[in-house]
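Dear Dr. H.,

I hope your travels went smoothly. While you were away I took the liberty of generating a structure for the chain from your last submission, since the lab meeting agenda had it listed for discussion. I wanted you to have the full record in hand beforehand rather than looking at slides cold. The sequence, exactly as received, is reproduced here:
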Amino acid sequence: ASAASIIVTIGSEAAAIAAASPKHTDTPILHALLPASAVPPPTTADRTRTTAIVLDQPAARLVALLRLALPQTQTVALIAGPSSELAVDRVRAAAQDAGLKVRQSHIDNSDALFPALQHVLVEPAVLVTIPDAVVFNRYTVQNILLTTFRRRSPVLGFSAAYVRAGALLGLYSTPTQVGEDAADAVLDLIAGRPRPALSPPQRFEVGVNNTVARALGLELPTAESLMRELRRVEAD
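The corresponding predicted structure, in token form, is as follows:
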């Protein structure tokens, strides 16, 4: 069989397997549908030309959505876990650049979550969720959403499931959208066009939970109008 011209991996496990294989050191590899924290570190040699499209939304996009949906927001709450420190730091910097106050905590295990929530929500804020299995998982989601709701603090979630569960807003990319981004990247690689080592998804969705908005006494634009405005902001 002829050698592959490009290797495309889907998900964290496939990326790790491909990165560990010595057979494809000269073949470009595209990793997709994985968080930035799971992207395999580059090898010591440059023979492996790797690029990744990660699930993490860019910090500037998250802050821009907050500005569009909740212009009255003054404070952003952030909780970092073991795998999300860098991502949380980027969001903190983008929020501060936009003139927002930031309250931030770091936890190493889920037992520390509730004290961390109390710290970052000592005053009403928008909790921006950053993917981290220690902080945000199926066991902690209800505790997080109940605590934030009681403290009149909306949540910006990183998945459609988070919005359905009770997050006011969501910003995420679907597997189909990441697949379309990956197809664009493959065409770039075939054509010899340079690609960044790591890039966020270009396609994305915005979610709005209108039930939560009403309960918090908030009036939000529709998800469609927010998505349209967010794309316009990024195009400028």
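Two observations you may find useful: The chain has nine helices and ten strands. Strands lie at 7-10, 29-34, 50-54, 75-80, 101-106, 126-128, 155-157, 169-172, 198-199, 205-208.

With kind regards,
E. W.
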